Every structure is written in structure tokens, then in C-alpha cells.
Amino acid sequence: SHDMCTCDRNFQGADCSLRTCPFGKAHVDTPRGDLDASLTIGDHNDIILAGPTLYPYGITEGFPLMSDTAGTVIANTAHDYMECSNKGLCDRINGLCECLPGYDGAACQRASCPSKANSSTPGSGQGERSNTNFKVFNANSAFHGRAAEVVQRDQCSGHGTCMTIEQLAFLDHGNTYDLWDRDVTM
């Protein structure tokens, strides 16, 4: 009790020197399972660990509480808030996410729109950083992603508009799309 640090917000580690990266809804994730060894998996509101650094609201075993567009609560859901949206690695020095190819945003929270100018965008097939040259590990990082400060340039080659799935649904006779990926799928 006399030799531990209590970290300020957005810092972590034994000496509070590591930064925490932005969180977004996870594109993919896995439920945590039976964390307390009780042989049961608690509900979305049964907090197992309160106040950890990365999850200040607590850690639960069950899936997050979600509902469909009609308001019906769905059991066995996913897409909880995760660091770098589970589609990037956190640079603990500066607190920025390095996104996998095909994802961008401060928390890697959305799919990238195709672009000739940005060769790490899926389908471009250009340059050493394109998805066709994707590597699981290299000397620079775990993947050829791009850091959050690199903005999407020349989306749709300057001859189109990049829209979310929610916007596309609305343009189709005013349909409503209100699922977890409404601002994620481009």
C-alpha cells in the first residue's frame, strides 16, 4: 500500500509512464468468460473488477448490453468498447493507435474508403504499404498500418463520395440503419 502508483487518466503501467489509446466499438471481439472462477458467466451488469486503468467503469464477464433497431434486447452480442477498436495497436509512448490496413480514425473505429493516394487502403494494390504486401510482423511494427494522425486523402480517387452505411440507407428512400456499425462501415 506504500509503494504503488495510482495513475492519472489515460496513463497506465507500474510507473504510470505508458499512455492509453482511444477506444471505439470493437469490430471483432470475444467475451471474457468466467473471470472469477464461479462456474457461471455473469450478466452485462455484474461487475467483476471495478475501476481498472483501461476500463474505469469495470470489467464484466458477459456480453455488453445491446439491442436491435426495434429496441429488442439481444443476448450474446459483441462490439464492446476496446482500445483501438481491436483493429490496431496502441503506441504506448504517444497514445496513438496504429491501425491495420483498411481501418482509420483516432481509435481505428471505421473502415477506410478506397483511395489511390493512400496505398494502405484495401483494394488499391499500390505501393509497399498496400494490403497486397500485408505482413504479420516486420521490424517497424506488428503490421503495415498507419498512425492516427495520417488522414484519409483523396477518398474515392476524388471522383466519388465516401459515406457510412447509415447515410446510404437513408438515401435509399429514407431507410433507417441503426445497428452497431452505422458509423463504422463505409
Overview of the molecule:
- The protein is built from 1 helix and 13 strands.
- The chain has 2 domains: 1-16 and 156-185, no CATH class; 19-114, no CATH class.
- The model is unreliable at 118-151 (pLDDT under 50).
- 4% of the residues lie in helices and 18% in strands.
- The strands form 6 sheets. A 3-stranded antiparallel β-sheet has the order 9-10-13, with no helix packed on it. Strands 1-2 form a two-stranded antiparallel sheet. Strands 3-8 form a two-stranded antiparallel ribbon.
- By secondary structure, the chain is mainly beta.
- The chain is flat and about 60 Å long.
| Mean pLDDT rating | 74
% residues in beta strands: 15-25%
The succession of helices and strands, N to C, reads EEEEEEEEEEEEEH
Number of helical segments with 4 or more residues: 1
Structural class, by secondary structure, is mainly beta
Distance between the termini: 49 Å
Count of strand segments: 13
- Biggest sheet strand order reads 9-10-13
Protein name: Sexually induced protein SIG 1
Keywords: Disulfide bond, EGF-like domain
Pfam families: EGF_2 (PF07974)
Organism: Thalassiosira weissflogii (Marine diatom)
